[in-house]
Design goal:
The protein is α/β, with parallel strands linked by helices. The chain has three domains: about 170 residues, Rossmann fold, CATH 3.40.50; about 60 residues, Orthogonal Bundle (Helicase, Ruva Protein, domain 3); about 140 residues, Zinc Finger, Delta Prime, domain 3 (Up-down Bundle). The chain is about 50% helix and about 10% strand. Helix 12 packs antiparallel against helix 13, helix 14 runs antiparallel to helix 15 and helix 15 runs antiparallel to helix 16. The termini are far apart. Bound molecules: adenosine-5'-diphosphate (ADP), magnesium ion and zinc ion.
Length: about 475
């Protein structure tokens, strides 16, 4: 048996098999029905969404020897030849490789002869925007005096590159990207015709998570079905798309909810060992947190977090977004993520969120998802005129520990020197240790003044084991403030 890729094997052969593109299909069928066939069409839209497919069906419908209800029969000689690509009155030109004027010239000569076999000669010019200026001019001449029984179909992914002079002589169809239900319908058609066993959940996940046109989905399905030996399971979809199984995502979020942060840290470690991309994990965690937030606002509770935890959730999200931004500057983003996870421990005692956000520049009224460094700076740019301390805060925000500690200092800016007067010994010592780092960030010399007396520790007593573990995890780290809390 000859192996045929799904995308080719399941190319629709009739208008009614085409999924979506209703407007295009209906207009072309009506054109045949009413004998109002334009001599030039532009099929514009992204890759793999049916441009070539519909161009071929149209060619068949125009040349079929026994059409039924304006659909091709797919059995007569003409239909079969068009299907094979050997029909003498159909020309498929790839403008990406034949950009030359010669091809268009030969078309110009060709148009003067009548069709050999059928009713119409059809020229399908793929990637038409790639034609050279000269080729477009030659084409324009042809379109200006349209020869009868010749039809041009210009397929393009970049219609704005097609000259207006050409466009004004064509009927233009904008092909729409398939919707998720349409993709699902298409994949289901393949799965069922192939008698491939599938889990509904796996199909959902695939449609939800992957991107692209129908062709991309068909290829992906091909790959998954081959990989999993003729089955479509959720597990293989996750594996092929590199998605982290949802149970881990939930596990980590439940751990955060219960403030069992070491558990989160451990799970990150484990997933990395298993070969998962931790950046993908972080994105999934963030997406899930957003979803929780939306569910809370719509239904009063999410799957993991409750209404009462909404504020906390917003705070966690802002921390997660920061971690994502910061991780880009590091070789091993996992360490950054782990550090930020652990930072959540101080979430409740450092500051209420409003206060934290107003210290610096991070002004948000609603959670804002930050996807790129550019966007990050956009978020940051709605702000008041910069006051000196805020300027310092701004510079230090890449190292959030430093930025957060800033409240424990009085800052004095001199022409060539910034003086940090610590209110607490530990904060001062921490800054002292990072002196050269801070100078680098600020581009100025700094002086750190540390108070003589250590303030009395309020409570002594046994300290939480997890603190030791954090210290172990981050060599060189110090306890800046410690409170023993009962759960
Ligand atoms: N609207 C559609 N309905 C059903 N299948 C489609 C559709 N669009 C694309 N396909 C599938 O994707 C494959 C590639 O489509 P094609 O028409 O060649 O895309 P392009 O828009 O790049 O010309 C087809 O063989 C078919 O299997
Ligand atoms: Mg195509
Ligand atoms: Zn036919």
């Amino acid at each position: 048996m000859v192996y045929e890729a799904f995308s080719r094997k399941y190319r629709p052969k009739t208008f009614s098999e085409v999924i979506g593109q209703d407007y295009v299909v209906k207009t072309l069928k009506n054109a045949i029905k009413l004998s109002r066939i334009s001599h030039a069409y532009i099929f514009a839209g992204s890759r793999g969404i049916g441009k070539t497919t519909i161009a071929r069906i149209f060619t068949k419908a125009l040349n079929c020897r026994s059409p039924l209800d304006f659909e091709p029969c797919n059995q007569c000689e003409n239909c079969l030849e068009i299907e094979k690509g050997s029909f003498p009155d159909m020309y498929e030109i790839d403008a990406a490789s034949n950009r030359g004027i010669d091809d268009i010239r030969s078309i110009r000569d060709n148009v003067n002869y009548s069709p050999i076999k059928g009713g119409y000669k059809v020229y399908i010019i793929d990637e038409a925007h790639m034609l050279t200026k000269e080729a477009f001019n030659a084409l324009l001449k042809t379109l200006e005096e349209p020869p009868p029984r010749n039809i041009f179909i210009l397929a393009t992914t970049e219609s704005y590159k097609i000259p207006d002079t050409i466009k004004s002589r064509c009927q233009i169809f904008l092909f729409k990207p398939p919707t998720k239900p349409q993709i699902k319908q298409y994949l289901k058609r393949i799965l069922e015709s192939e008698s491939v066993e599938y889990e509904e959940e796996a199909l959902e996940l695939l449609v939800e998570e992957a991107e692209g046109g129908m062709r991309d989905f068909a290829s992906l399905l091909d790959q998954i079905v081959t990989f999993s030996e003729g089955k479509l399971t959720k597990k293989t979809v996750e594996e092929i798309l590199g998605i982290i199984p949802e149970k881990y995502v939930k596990h980590i979020l439940f751990a955060i909810k219960k403030m069992k942060l070491e558990e989160g840290v451990k799970t990150l470690e484990l997933l990395e060992t298993e070969g998962y991309d931790i950046n993908v994990l972080w994105k999934q965690l963030t997406d899930k947190l957003y979803q929780e937030l939306i569910e809370i606002s719509l239904k009063g509770k999410g799957e993991i977090f409750s209404q009462e935890e909404e504020k906390k959730l917003i705070y966690i999200l802002s921390i997660f977004n920061r971690a994502a931004t910061e991780s880009r500057n590091f070789q091993n983003p996992k360490n950054v993520y782990q550090l930020y996870l652990l930072k959540l421990r101080y979430l409740e005692y450092i500051k209420p969120i409003e206060e934290l956000l107003s210290v610096g520049t991070y002004k948000e009224s609603k959670p804002h998802k930050v996807d790129s460094v550019e966007e990050y700076s956009k978020v940051e740019s709605h702000q008041e005129p910069i006051k000196p301390v805020e300027e310092i805060y701004r510079s230090l925000k890449r190292e959030p520990v430093l930025a957060n500690l800033l409240t424990k200092f009085e800052v004095e800016i001199r022409p060539d020197l910034v003086v940090f007067r610590a209110k607490e010994v530990e904060a001062g010592e921490y800054f002292q240790e990072k002196k050269s780092v801070i100078e680098n960030i600020l581009g100025k010399s700094i002086e750190i003044v540390i108070p003589k007396e250590k303030p009395q520790q309020k409570r002594s007593g046994k300290r939480d084991e997890s603190v030791d573990r954090i210290l172990e995890l981050f060599p060189g780290s110090k306890i800046v403030k410690y409170e023993n809390r009962e759960d």
